[in-house]
Write a structure and sequence with these properties.
With about 240 residues, the protein is mostly helical. Helix content is about 55%, strand content about 0%.
């Protein structure tokens, strides 16, 4: 039911000691006396680059650990930031991106649908095994420039009608989840190359000479095709292709 999906977006108070520490610093820097839950986005709550620097500075003083400023841009919620710190992962070793919209988590609907940090390939495997929700699939389709019906039937080879009968919070099977995640990884790479969603959509839906005059999106149905697209994107980064 829709109520199940809405529950994900309700206020959730900090629970662990790390979440409470992050929340305390966050509230102090933002001078915000209202309730800030673990799923609230730092920038949606009034945060900006200067306040992000203050939060990271105070966190470093508290935990005695080096934390790059880019961490809060990619993981802008109390829950995700706390999980990185609690797992004792060196934040300087995390694969960070300057724009949070480029992250795999955000492409799949954000921390409210992907509830574990994606910091390594093992996390991606765990997410595939657990299964992503229909909400994650819906979020990804918005970046592709094709209809959900076309994506389901021509890329995933699943029934569009059957999928539409699912609730937002229903999980997809392991194989479909893995396929969607692999496509999302390609989209993350393409975002890094083109830095613009409209350019990305145009590139995905235009015949490409490097792909034998096939549209990249027409190769999304098979892993070999995804590998070919990834290779072309790498060559564009290197300046081999334009």
């Amino acid at each position: 039911m829709e109520e199940d999906y809405k529950h994900i977006h309700e206020y959730v108070a900090p629970r662990t000691e790390t979440e409470k520490l992050v929340a305390k610093i966050w509230i102090g820097v933002l001078n915000n006396n209202s309730k800030i839950g673990i799923y609230d986005n730092f920038f949606d709550s009034g945060g900006h680059s200067l306040s992000a620097i203050r939060i990271i500075s105070q966190l470093k003083q508290e935990i005695k650990q080096e934390i790059p400023i880019a961490v809060i841009f990619q993981y802008p919620t109390i829950k995700m930031l706390a999980q990185i710190l609690e797992r004792q992962i060196d934040p300087t070793s995390v694969n960070l991106q300057s724009n949070p919209e480029l992250s795999l988590v955000n492409l799949l609907g954000g921390e409210k649908t992907i509830t574990i940090p994606i910091l390594s390939e093992f996390d991606i495997i765990a997410l595939s095994n657990e299964g992503i929700t229909k909400a994650s699939l819906d979020s990804l389709v918005n970046y592709l420039g094709i209809s959900k019906k076309s994506f389901c039937e021509n890329v995933l080879n699943v029934s569009f009608r059957s999928l539409e009968r699912k609730k937002h919070t229903d999980k997809l099977d392991k194989q479909t989840s893995s396929h969607v995640i692999e496509i999302a990884k390609i989209v993350v790479h393409a975002f890094a190359v083109f830095e613009n969603n409209e350019k990305l959509k145009d590139w995905l839906n235009t015949k490409n000479k490097a792909l034998n005059d096939v549209k990249p999106i027409e190769l999304f149905h098979i892993q070999t095709g995804l590998n070919m697209i990834n290779d072309v994107l790498g060559r564009i980064e290197e300046g081999v292709y334009s």
